[in-house]
Amino acid sequence: MQNFSYVSAARPEEAVKALGRGCAFIAGGTELLNWMRLGIATPDTLIDIGGMEGHSRIERTGDHLIIGALATLNEVGEHPLVRAHATVLADACLKAASPQIRNRATLGGNVLQKTRCAYFRSETPLPWGCNKRSPGSGCAARDGLNELHAVLGWADHCVATHPSDPAVALACLDASAEVMGKRRRMLPMTDFHVSQVEAQAMFKAAGTGSLLPAHEAQIETRLARDELILAYHIPIHDGERSAYLKVRERESYEYALVSAAATVALDGGLITRARIALGSVAQKPWRLVETEAALIGRRLVREEISAALRTLFEQARPLAHNEYKVQLAANAALRAVLAAGGVS
Amino acid sequence: MIGRSITRLEGHAKVTGKARYAADNNLARVLHAVLVGAPIANGRVLSIDTEAAQRVRGVVRVLTHSDMPRFGAVSFPSAILKLPMQDDVIRHEGTPVAIVLAESLESAEEGAGAVVVRARSESPLVPRDSAGETPVRMGFGEDLNRGDVPGALQRAAHRVEQRFIQPARHHNPMEPSATVAEWFGDTLFLYDSVQAGFNLPPVMAAVFGIDAKNVRVIAPHTGGGFGCKGWVWPHEILAAAAARVAGRPVKLVLTRAQMYANVGYQPLVRQDIALGCDAEGKLAALRHDVVNTTSIVETWTEAATEISRGLYAVPALQLTQRVERVHANLPTAMRAPAEGPGSWALESAMDELALLLRMDPLDLRLANYAQTDPVHGKPWSSNKLREAYAEGARLFGWRERGQLPRHDGPWRIGFGMAACTMTTFRHPAAARVRLQDDGGAVVEAGTHDIGTGTTTILPQICADTLGIDVARVSIQHGDTTLPDAGPVYGSSATMGVGSAVMLAARDALAKVARLAREPVETLDFAAAMRRIGVAEIVGDGRFALPGNASFNADGAGTPDAMRTWGAVFLEVGVDPDLGLVRLRRAVGSYSAGRIVNPLTARSQITGGIIWEWGKATMEQSLQEPRHGRWLAKNLSNVAIPVNADIPAAITVHFVEEHDEHASPLGAKGIGELGATGVAAAVANAVFDAVGIRVRELPILPSKLIRDLSS
């Protein structure tokens, strides 16, 4: 670990203004410090935004739930408003990490964590290729041990998945991130993270001299380098229920093999609206839009939901060791939709 | 007092942070050492550029193989015979190629990051399913060919022939290995994290050409070992060497990542088992062929065939042990060695055979109970396995399991059982007991608290022998200036040093009785000492092995064969949609000699069951196929069980037993016994739940989903 300097910001404007080359924001610090220990990040300056007042609030404004970026995962997961109107997010938060980490980690930082790919998480000096760590060095996981890697949206330059649980719930809920850079803007959480295929397109479109990272593998979100997440805005739909399902080999403190977030609205036993997002299958939460459309007017039973999930098998592109993930994702999605609809 | 559940005497010191571990020793003028590991698994060091590292503020010196002094030749108990930093050859990734010494840990870490190692890389050997080669024998895991195995298998009414695989797994003790070394002329002090302090002096003496008497090891507390702190590993030698070169004390703490490549682990083990039996289930033949991975020049034999010599009465036996060389660090003993892997294969195969026979798996085991040692025909020193089976089955409700529900929401419920057994390893041990005229006593034994309860039960044994309250007994331990109490591994400490303490207390009482001219039976030692005006009496105790051997397995060379026994019964839930396996309850029932402290014994067994639950369902260390490096060297990509995985319903039962042939105390080993049988019982229960037989551990959701959806 290298020496760095530390400043703290009292307001977002101050934080954004202080941001220069080699700077990194820090709030809970549960992820950035890992990067610094492993040599994934070597910032010269840390800008501590953890003390900014008023940015951990959780409140209802009209038909939206607003969650400040500095709210911790435990605060979000246990908040009555979140539990009532965004159960899927509350559960995703409480199924993430460990109680100790959830007390530190913020919802703003959580969506910006990096992949758990073992090749990527190796200590410096990196013994193998990883375009995220060392642009142009290749992707050792592409033809290596990739049981835990992507089945959707990957490219040869990178096959990593994004590990965040809350991000899957936020994408499922059609939430938006309120971000601040030179100006404030709303960024839909379905578009916040990008798959490797999308990253390639962004990289190609941007051309030289852009503010994008040096390699397409390093483009993981649409958040600009000088932007800071302030809050999440989650639309509330009365009568809609949601559920989060996380599949992992152990019961707690483990990243998902696959996760599924679902919301369901029913009328007379028929589905009027459903949204499904899968986690740990791609570098972004993967919305099953075709399935969502196919579910409208269907009954909330295994057979009909399974039929609607068939498109997943057509779209998925498993790697050498992760074909199981497609079936597992379909099963998880089925279970999440049933749970959201009140069938356990 | 023996047989009572007293809580940890060392507990208060631990929870208040007073217990001093190796890295807690902050010596004046200490230099912090950080290792730089080889970046490749196979090849040679071309150059090591230390210039940038030397410029880091606080860095005092960077050592490489070119300026490291040449070491003297070492032998066992050095884990490694070919020591690192003596030449430019790289035989596994992460082997130390440089050491950065600095005034602070931060400087040493930064310096280590600035060392540039250039190496010529050749493609490494990785696990490849070869037939393996015959290892040099270590007196354990010998091949055996008795009776007509092929003929008996051919004639058998029922036959199971299967391959069982378990991946490599690392010990991952909570405390990483740490060594603080300080020289006073030719005298070496080591504050170390070890399971056997007395293993160090002979190795250090050989390395540095000094007298073993001049090496003192101080190690009262060790934060878990499980086998990876048993023998002497290179980092301990390198720390001492660096301290000698620098002329200052040196502290070296391995990082979690460095633990993966700088101490041992349990290797990948492939086992081919063939079982044949008659129509009633009586075993006629057993073939057990084992191949484990080991390093390029050093050999570890994972003696999984040991179980096939002892657990069942089989007339025809064919056992082979082979090793497959890979460019990885050397494996070592890990809770439980030999029978840990062996029971996974044999007890899975027995379950498969029971299914062919349509027989209760418990009845199949009872039908093949070994009345005597199957290989040598010797009587057992003690064996209450049938009582353990009966009591375990009763506590679990095994015979009535057909009436229990098979579904719980999305969960399918399965039941599985397996036998447990472990070779009895014995090590000699000495101890001293000092009687005080105020009625107190001090136990002195060069043993270590490694978390198992040793420093609770030794005072307990002493108090029991003396007939006093345990509160009146204190213990001095963890220092090689104390009597050589042997290692804390191989489940041998209670038996060995416990017996030595008992004998030392008896010796002290006998001395008081002699001096006071009183019969020992009615002696009040404190009153007698005060009457004759003696403030302290010292008793010595020694637990010796036949022929004064330094190690004994299985009671070899004695009239008796020695093992420990048991059975584990499990209920698991399997979610067939999601491939999840969860433990619902467990009963372990054991025949393991005299139980000194039921509370610490229960903790040991519970820990063993949890340990094997991890092996069964999640743990694996994968060697990256192209680079030869461990794919992941941290606990975020190598899962081990957490609290939420473990139900409260784990019942542990010990059969009343006293094995005076194994030790004067009547005790045997339990630390590893609990970590046998469980993985097979899990696989058997998973089969019972969903009809899928997994023969390659761990039983991950990916494997179940593959089979359930095809």
UniProtKB/TrEMBL annotation, chain A:
<feature type="domain" description="FAD-binding PCMH-type">
    <location>
        <begin position="1"/>
        <end position="239"/>
    </location>
</feature>
<dbReference type="InterPro" id="IPR036318">
    <property type="entry name" value="FAD-bd_PCMH-like_sf"/>
</dbReference>
<dbReference type="InterPro" id="IPR016169">
    <property type="entry name" value="FAD-bd_PCMH_sub2"/>
</dbReference>
<protein>
    <submittedName>
        <fullName>Xanthine dehydrogenase family protein subunit M</fullName>
    </submittedName>
</protein>
<keyword id="KW-0274">FAD</keyword>
<keyword id="KW-0560">Oxidoreductase</keyword>
<dbReference type="InterPro" id="IPR051312">
    <property type="entry name" value="Diverse_Substr_Oxidored"/>
</dbReference>
<dbReference type="InterPro" id="IPR036683">
    <property type="entry name" value="CO_DH_flav_C_dom_sf"/>
</dbReference>
<dbReference type="InterPro" id="IPR002346">
    <property type="entry name" value="Mopterin_DH_FAD-bd"/>
</dbReference>
<dbReference type="InterPro" id="IPR016166">
    <property type="entry name" value="FAD-bd_PCMH"/>
</dbReference>
<keyword id="KW-0285">Flavoprotein</keyword>
<dbReference type="InterPro" id="IPR005107">
    <property type="entry name" value="CO_DH_flav_C"/>
</dbReference>
<dbReference type="Pfam" id="PF00941">
    <property type="entry name" value="FAD_binding_5"/>
</dbReference>
<dbReference type="InterPro" id="IPR016167">
    <property type="entry name" value="FAD-bd_PCMH_sub1"/>
</dbReference>
<dbReference type="Pfam" id="PF03450">
    <property type="entry name" value="CO_deh_flav_C"/>
</dbReference>
From TrEMBL, chain B:
<dbReference type="InterPro" id="IPR000674">
    <property type="entry name" value="Ald_Oxase/Xan_DH_a/b"/>
</dbReference>
<dbReference type="Pfam" id="PF20256">
    <property type="entry name" value="MoCoBD_2"/>
</dbReference>
<dbReference type="InterPro" id="IPR016208">
    <property type="entry name" value="Ald_Oxase/xanthine_DH-like"/>
</dbReference>
<keyword id="KW-0560">Oxidoreductase</keyword>
<dbReference type="InterPro" id="IPR037165">
    <property type="entry name" value="AldOxase/xan_DH_Mopterin-bd_sf"/>
</dbReference>
<dbReference type="Pfam" id="PF01315">
    <property type="entry name" value="Ald_Xan_dh_C"/>
</dbReference>
<dbReference type="InterPro" id="IPR036856">
    <property type="entry name" value="Ald_Oxase/Xan_DH_a/b_sf"/>
</dbReference>
<feature type="domain" description="Aldehyde oxidase/xanthine dehydrogenase a/b hammerhead">
    <location>
        <begin position="16"/>
        <end position="123"/>
    </location>
</feature>
<dbReference type="Pfam" id="PF02738">
    <property type="entry name" value="MoCoBD_1"/>
</dbReference>
<protein>
    <submittedName>
        <fullName>Xanthine dehydrogenase family protein molybdopterin-binding subunit</fullName>
    </submittedName>
</protein>
<dbReference type="InterPro" id="IPR046867">
    <property type="entry name" value="AldOxase/xan_DH_MoCoBD2"/>
</dbReference>
<keyword id="KW-0500">Molybdenum</keyword>
<dbReference type="InterPro" id="IPR008274">
    <property type="entry name" value="AldOxase/xan_DH_MoCoBD1"/>
</dbReference>
<comment type="similarity">
    <text>Belongs to the xanthine dehydrogenase family.</text>
</comment>
